[in-house]
Amino acid sequence: MQNARGQFSSKLGFLMAAAGSAVGLGNIWGFPTQVATHGGGAFLLVYLVLAFALAYPALMAELIIGRHTRANVVTALSSLSENKYASKAGMLVGIFGVITASFILSFYAIVAGWMLAEFIVPMTQLLQTTDAENWIGSSSISRNITVCVIFSLCNAIIISQGVEKGIEAWSTRLMPILIFILICMIVYVLNQPGAWRGVTVYLVPNVADIFKPDLLLSALGQAFFSLSLGVGTMLIYGSYLRDEDNLPRMGAAVTLLDTGFAFIAGLLIIPAIYVAEHQGINTLNDNGELIAGPELIFQVLPNLFNSMGASGNIFALAFFALMTIAALTSSISMLEVPVSAAVEHWNISRKKATFTIASIILGISICIIWQFETTFNLIISLTTVYAEPLIGVALCLFAGWAFNRHQLLSELSRGHPDIEKSLFWKVWPFYVKWFCPVLILLAFVQSLR
Ligand code: PHE
Question: Within 13 Å, how many C-alpha atoms sit on residue 123's CB side?
Answer without folding.
Answer: 13
